[in-house]
Amino acid sequence: MKLAIVTPYPPEISGVGQYGARVAEGLARSGRFHQARVFANQSASAPDVEQRPGLTIQRTWRRDQLSAAGNVAQALRQWRPDVVWFNLGLSVFGRSRLHNFCGLAGPMLARSAGLPTVVTLHEIFEAANLRSLGAVNGRVTHWGGQAATRLLLQADIVCLTLQAYVGALQARYHARNLAHVPHGAFDAPAFAPLPKEKRILIFATYAPYKGLPQLIEIFRGLRAADPAVHLTVAGSDHPRFPGYLNQVRETVGGPLRAGIEWRVGVPETDLPALFASARVVALPYMATTGASSVVHRASAHGRPVVAYDLPDLRTVAAEEKLRLELVPAGDRTAFARRLGDLLDAPALCEAIGRGNAATMETMTLDITCQRYIHLFEEAIASKTLLSRIPNFQQG
After folding, report:
1. For the chain, which has fewer Cβ within 10 Å, the N-terminal or C-terminal residue?
2. For 11-20, 181-190, 251-260, which range has the lowest pLDDT when averaged over its residues?
3. What is the pTM of this model?
């Protein structure tokens, strides 16, 4: 079977891109595909074509390019895979509404070319708090978001990482080609021994809605009461907000930097050690875009997560039976109190961490890949069946 994968891909650092890279690697290791090719975004620091174990990476499109979907469709028609998997978020194709709307037409173009097409959608327009995310929130945006969703639903199968998203799209669009594939773990779940140090970790692709300045203020209060408390700020800029992390860092000057470690652009291979270095992971997000990859990474490595009680995070906790320490949204005092309580209670941190790591054993990368393989086979079988119907025309 020839598998085509369309996804953002490292060296770009994003939740959707890291998910696509790790699942692509897992699929390549499965032995079910005699060829697998990733049609990825172009990068100044990566060659146009490169070979990875079991994978060919072909840089076919770039962000902020109106022709991205057309370029992908042309490359797919030339390669003629047996099935195409699109791994998408609503803003992976650029910073503007127009670039993203045009890019999200890719699955429809692939299916129109007769290719069995499966889409994973990490966020849905109906659940997005656009104002909190710093996006334009008006009639054109709402029309475009719904139109883009209808385009995506033209795929043979659309996968959602939250069961609640499946229900929302069924109710709003009467879609029947939906599947639930939980986000799952990137790394093999395992509890890492807690450090003696009272260290908080925030790991993110940073944007204003991720709450980093607010967390720094919370940290200063905790450190004033206990100088043994430390904070690690790790990750990189969100593609829509280049330079944001450096802007925040520049505002934290002189003595105010005491106790803060900045780790920008952490390599994937260093992430297990990064999470193991912390006692607690903080997610001070004011808005979310789907099932957080950081929640799943922290849980797989056995670290408790303190976060604001936002709908997506509450849904992740309920659907996947993960224990998240959720405090009222926007309540910095409650956030600080919960962080402090956990930093002073290593036994409780261990109990939470071990429980979440055990839960993640039911959502390993191998299990995720097997779910996708089943859906790929289902899409191929459905396309084969329809092609045998007299006078059938692909719509």
Report:
1. C
2. 251-260
3. 0.89
